[in-house]
What does this fold into?
Amino acid sequence: MSNHPTERLHGLDALRGGALLLGVVLHASLSFFPQQIWIVGDDATSIGAAMVFFPIHLFRMTAFFLIAGLFAHMMLSRKGWLAFAKDRAVRITGPLLAFWFPVMAGIVTALVWNAHVSGLVVPGAPPPPPPTYDWTNIPLTHLWFLYVLSLFCLATLILRAPFAALDRSGGWGRAVDRLTGALIGWWTPLLLAAPLAVAFWLDPKWIAFFAVPTPDAGLVPHAAALIGFGSAFGLGFLLDRRRDLLDRLAAGWPVFLIAAVASGVWAYNLAGGPNLAPMVEPTPAKALAAAVVALAVWSSAFAAIGLCLRFLSGHSPLRRYLADSSYWVYILHLPLVMLAQVWVQGWPGPWWLKLAGVSLGVLAVCLLSYELTVRHGFTGKWLNGRRIPWRRPADPVAVPAE
It folds into this structure.
């Protein structure tokens, strides 16, 4: 792997896109859990749905934020702080503001339909009072990652200024690079799991099955989310300064994968499967669960990163297309998933077949809308930074007369 800072990292592109696309499967699986934890509950349920959800949820957003931090430093070093701030405001904060209301409208539509299908709403009866929201509980939905990423980018700009002013000679930067080098190895998940485990242990609302709590409601993220996702973003930011360390991560994938499987299975058992009861008291049992879950989060994230760097670093038109489309797919998918869950909830058939149908059907609709309305127009340039022109037919080749 070249260490040239301008080389495109196809493996990390693939992982970033895969992490977002897996969100479709993740949310689709929720309606098939043995106990109803989702607004839409299906007739066909299985513990297998929880086993699909758990490993995806462990690594997905931690890996995503690490890659986001790496690409953030890449852009900042190439274009400067002003262009970085403009790009992040347009391509991250802008979609959050633009799509939040349409997404909420779609979710509310699915909820109303589900209420009618489930008999929770009697025709002619007055509707229940609408919920009240403020800054503590405003629903960010699945778009919370754009809000948190906006906060991290803002923090990057704020922290960069004093560091750059104090490090004109570059001595501090070299020291940070050496520290980053010492951090990366088979021991990295252990080191990074420690502060995350403490955050889990101190959180009276922590549910072990959900690992890092997603800050999808309210404008102040959970401490565990800030620590877990913030440390991932920060490490990615530092790794872009030391691209040579990516080779070390790629070579370490077997160790990370073994640790991920072992700690992931242990974490699932300690969580009691899809047990939604929070671990309130900071007991020794909670400390063990917190440590194992935190280790599973980080080892699975590094296993995914190492595998993609090792085996997906070559250019692939299909992977590149899916990576480009993943941002749009993720923004659009949740209302469609919920509508599809309501539609199929009474159908006969095993849970896995319905899960596959919901996931593939929603993915197909999202990809079709991406190709026809996004990729080749203004929205594609807005979300992905570039517009892909429609492919024009090749000019006919003149054949000389014989």
